[in-house]
Amino acid sequence: MSASISVRDLRKRYGDVAAVDGVSFDVEQGEFFGILGPNGAGKTTTLEIIEGLRKPDSGDVTVLGLPAWPRNPGLLPRIGVQLQASSFFERLSAIEQIRTFAALYDVPAKRADQMLEVVGLTEQAGTRTEKLSGGQAQRLSIACALVHDPELLFLDEPTGALDPQARRNLWDLLRQIAGSGRTVVLTTHHMDEAETLCDRVAIMDHGKILRAGPPAALVRELDRPLRMSVQSGLVSADQATEFSGEQATDDGVSLTIVTTHPAQVLAGLANRDALAGLRVQGATLEDVFLSLTGREYRA
Amino acid sequence: MKLASLSRAMFLGFVRDRAAVIFSILLPVLFLLLFGTIFKNSSAPKISLITVGQVSLIRQAQAADPGGLAKIMTVTAGKSLPAALAAVRKGTDDGVVLQRGNTLVLRYSIADPTKAGIVQSVVGSIVQAANQAGRPPAYTLAASQVQDRTLKGIQYVTPGLLAWALASGAAFGSSITLVTWRQNKLLRRLRLAPVGTGQIVAARIGISVAIGLVQMAVFLGIATLPYFGLKLTYAWYMAIPLVVCGILAFMSIGLLVGAVAKTQQAASAIVNLVILPMAFLGGAFLPLDFAPAWVREASHAMPLSYLVNAMQDVMARGEGPAAALPAIGILLGFTLVLSLIAVRVFRWDDV
User: Fold this and answer.
1) pLDDT tens figures, A135-157
2) pLDDT at A262 over 50
3) φ, ψ of residue A86 in degrees (nearest 5)
4) CB distance B104 to B97 below 8 Å
5) Which of A79, A89, A104 sits opposite B195 (nearest CB)?
6) Which of residues 6-65 of B touch A (CB under 8 A)?
7) In CA terms, which of A50, A112, B11, B230 is 20 to 30 Å from B121?
8) Chain B within 8 Å of A96 (Cβ-Cβ)?
9) Could you give the strand order of the β-sheet that contains A226-231, starting from the edge strand earlier in sequence?
10) What is the pLDDT of residue B27?
11) Helices B264-281 and B239-260 meet at what angle, rounded to 10?
């Protein structure tokens, strides 16, 4: 089979705490896979075992067809790891950083320079990494992880503390990376990020995978009512309650109807020519998470 | 290629760290300026002696070795005994000698014990030499012993300061690097790259040794300027292997500290706590000749004191190259033991 990563009944305890408690999943070649969960859910430990940094207590992990433990140096050139925006050598410029990492993989400096261009940092080549903005540092970090053209890429909280524009910017870059047929494994706190980037996600908590699948499928499974709203004043709340069969509310700005029969509501609104400012909000991955863990999201 | 590029990254990281460069190169030089200036004139004190009447023994001694005696004492002829004694009491001169037949009478003040001791031993040796007639070289020997016992200030201070500077540079460098790299996860990142731990350590050692040798060259360059007047004795080149072994020993201390400490602040506090007492009690700043016995005992447990002593031996005391060998052995042994402990307590990341 073409599974890039195969994890079977993985377990790892630290003292009394079962950090990873019977985890199984596969990541197919070329897939963009997300592991979601709050801090302490066991994502990091799972990832560290896959990367060959930790020995599992039990379970089987194969990476690119080879066992992850004992640590296999032959695997290292085939995987790329992006840790944090600060995992750099001190006081080196962007180009010096990436050339240093390139040299560790016996990759020529020319390829490093190209990679810098791919992530759009050519202008910042001479800037010390300490002086780069958060988004630029993340781009460099990703470029360093990709410089040796790995088959499998691990991304750890890539958009951690970025502003919305920088995040979107980075998402474009990540889509481009994933588009080149590489397998990507992403861990994140951010549900919106996973929803927009990942082909498939696994939601973890307390060392277990609670649910896995494509984000859209997980959201659909939840079967939550839709929240439909239009501009206030087009139709009265009483009328709306009547044709939709659901309780409609009007807060003076919007008229809102929460329903599981969107067709009926839409038709009713359309008949009364009351579609101005229509907004339809469905459940999100975050709702899936909340319903699975049954508690507030611990970011 | 991997080794070269790691070394290059570490080297650039060092030279671009202004604080580190100041600390490791300029600070010791500043200390040298300070200590060197203080000690500049405190070479073995020169004695001034007054002769009253005919003192044939002193005259013979002067005749036999004019230069040698002039180096350690000036001899002036006094007018009368009371006037000469008054000069000694006032401290302008250190002693009065007169000859009564075969007896040489010496009167000196004990206000300055060092000078008193020198006066006694110099005059005593002149008498001794005269007693063994026909063998004039005897006093050159005696005189030189008196002068040699205390090293001239700069001679003492340079090897000590250099040893301290290199030791703290090596310990700080390796501990801070280790803690920083663990904190920013570079350590983990490097572990996931196809590069061996050995190559990373080798690059770090290479850079530390190179920085240390540059420190040494700058430092000795300045100390040998005429203003300071350091005179290296013939086996000084043995200071190079000593310095290399000293750097290894103190890097191993840094490695252990870096393995234990969680933050940079903690690491530098611990290193200071280890190095500073060693610098004082190990004789890097001040001679231990007059220190209490327990300090001298304690100094035997300190790698820095072996380094300082051996460097003084080969650089300033004029001992042969072999004088450095015991210290080299001790430092390497120390490195081995500490590195083994450090490897045992080493952590790749904070859990």
Assistant:
1) 899 889 999 999 999 999 999 88
2) yes
3) -105, 0
4) yes
5) A104
6) 6, 8-10, 12-13, 16-17
7) B230
8) yes
9) A248-250, A254-259, A226-231, A279-281
10) 84
11) 140
Q: What pLDDT is attached to residue A128? A: 95
> Is A87 in Cβ contact with B185 (below 8 Å)?
yes
Q: How many helices (H) and strands (E) are present in chain B, helices listed first? A: 16, 4
pLDDT > 90? residue B332:
yes
Residue B342, pLDDT > 60, answer yes
The predicted structure's pLDDT at residue B141? 31
The residue assigned the tokens 């030089």 is: B29
pLDDT tens-digit map of A110-141:
999 999 998 889 999 999 999 999 889 988 99
- B351 CB neighbours in chain A (<8 A) are 14
The band of B178, judged by pLDDT with boundaries at 50, 70 and 90, is very high
> What pLDDT was estimated at residue B42?
52
Residue of A nearest to B347 (CA): A53
pLDDT above 70: percentage of residues in chain B:
90
Q: Which of B189, B348, B350 to mutate to test the interface with A (most CBs of A within 10 A)?
A: B189
Closest to A203 (Cα-Cα) out of A216, A192, A191? A191
The Cα–Cα gap between B68 and B47 comes to 13
Tell me the angle at which helices A94-104 and A109-118 cross, rounded to the nearest 10 degrees: 130
Under the banding of pLDDT at 50, 70 and 90, the label for residue B143 is: very low
**What is the enclosing helix (H) or strand (E) of A264?**
helix A262-271
Nearest partner of B185 among A211, A147, A172, A51, judged by Cα: A51
For chain B, the average pLDDT equals 83
Q: Token digits for A214? A: 């494509």
ipTM score for this prediction: 0.84
The pLDDT tens digits of the residues spanning B254-291 come to 999 999 999 999 999 999 999 999 998 888 887 777 77
Residue with tokens 């000698």: B97
Q: Are A138 and A85 in contact (CB under 8 A)?
A: yes
Half-sphere exposure of B234 (CA within 13 A, CB side): 4
SS3 assignment, position A280: strand
Strands B95-100 and B103-108: antiparallel
- Residue A279 bridge partners (DSSP): A229
The answer to whether B2 faces chain A, any CB pair under 8 Å, is yes
Does B137 have pLDDT greater than 60?
no
Which residues in chain A belong to E strands, given as ranges? Answer: 3-14, 17-28, 32-36, 58-63, 66-67, 79-82, 152-156, 183-188, 200-205, 208-213, 226-231, 248-250, 254-259, 279-281
| Structural domains in chain B, sorted by start | 2-40+151-345 (no CATH), 47-148 (3.40.190)
Q: Name the pairing type of β-strands A200-205 and A32-36.
A: parallel
Long-range contacts of A116-123 (CB under 8 A, 24+ apart): A116/A140, A116/A143, A118/A143, A118/A146, A119/A143, A119/A173, A120/A173, A121/A94
